What does this fold into?
Amino acid sequence: MIIEKLRVKGFRNLLPSTIDFCGGIDVLTGENAQGKTNILEAVHLLSTLTSFRTRKVREMMGRGEEKVILEGDLKDRDGSSNLRVEMEKEGKRAWIDGNTPTSTAQYLKVLPSVFFGPGDMRLTGGDQLLRRRFLDRAAFDLSSLHFDILKDYKRVLSQRNSLISQGKKDIEHWSVTLAEKGWKLFSARKKALEELAGRITTIHYEISGGLEEIRFILKPSWDENCGEDGLCKALEESIDDDISRGFTHHGPHRDRLKVLLDGRDINEHGSQGQHRTLALSMKLSLLLWAEERGADIPLFLLDDPGSELDERRMNFLAEFFENWHGQVMIATVKSGEIPLKGNKKNRFHRVERGSVNH
Amino acid sequence: MLARPIKNLIRELRKLPGVGEKTATRLALHILTAPPERAENLAHALTEVKERIVPCKECHQLTEDSPCAICASPRRDRTLLCIVEDQVSLISIENSGNFNGLYHVLGGRLSPMDGVGPSSLNIPDIKDRVRNLGVREVILATNPNVDGEATALYIKRLLEGTGAAVTRIARGVPMGGDLEYADSLTLGRAIDGRGTF
It folds into this structure.
């Protein structure tokens, strides 16, 4: 699916308007604080129902606004579709072609997207939460059931933590349920990582030309070889410790993804450049993977590449985008920052004070 | 714009599950324009249900007479006990016509986050009931979500040593529907829980 039109109302500084995208490479240019990233954020919301900046709806509402309306007209070879999201203080509502989706997972499948922005440097910089989210995203690509597994796991974890905070020890029924969901969650993340690792290495090599050996190790907080039973045992054995520390400290919410460059932890030994290249490779691998397995090609949203990527990486990206048949949206201060050769349909949009000039 | 009594009625109707502003307004206007006896019958039914309905002292389902008709019936298999979360589940299973045992209504499911523990539900008397009735099989029919699963596990453990076999209702694809119409979660679970054919 590609998004052809975006209608926005009440969102941050954007004026009520309809933005027409070319479907190839759409470049949003303009000075800082004009609304470029807000447009990417609106598209991201329409695609994933989440923002890459905040979880607070209030922050996304324009000044004096009570309601945000985002609507996208989508198209692919088989036909057209429409997504709509409305946000009020009380929460969000979403529609596919005017109908309420049967599940969030069903909605998320319509317009998949991958976002890369300045904050993603933390992906390789030791932010384990971001790394787990990356793996969850990949696991969701493998099976939409992953969304429900993750939701179930989070709920059981909250239930168990609630009992732990009350000092209750008779919680085996929650430990067993947590271990069952936890093992599924971990296994799905591991499978997704196995699929992606090789592709990340390939892209990393293409960007840097370096021959560093990259290894990914997903380290669980219990003995992986003992499977679900092992997690259950670890949970039961650590109840006293959990109670004294006030939280459950075994389970995939504590999974650690280690990245080794030539056998050394990138967190301790990686240069800024290596971090940037690897973080970008990880995100781009999701695009390649979707293409290779014949899935819907995600929309790629790239925010402010100039702040993090040097000329060499910009050249790589320009070539990558022009050879790739998915839709790309780039928010950048300078229109010439990404050296596009014009091999693929592109359109530049000038963003000024919340309004877009095509 | 609307008179105060109508607004009151709309506000009260809105408190019902699944009723929003529009439905509440439509219902209120319907009641208002219907013959007076219909509104009186509704008011009477509402008062009566609150006055006369009590939980069954055996199974805790809502009934006019305690013990309820199911618990009092000599035709029900008293060695078979089905544990459900609420009255709605009981009605659904009863409507299936496939179950001829007794019920035990929990009145909810475990959820520590919401302050619901075993003592807030009709759990403490299950063990005595199983022993007193000489139950041979307990069917755990709590809902197939994580809280329902944990509740089922808790009861399973509670019943250890009573000699009753503990079973769990099956999950899978509904009968009479094509696979293509089953949602992916149901289908995924059905594949996870597949059996030998």
Remarks:
- The mean pLDDT of chain B is 92.
- Chain B touches chain A through 17 residues (CB under 8 Å).
- The radius of gyration of chain B is 21 Å.
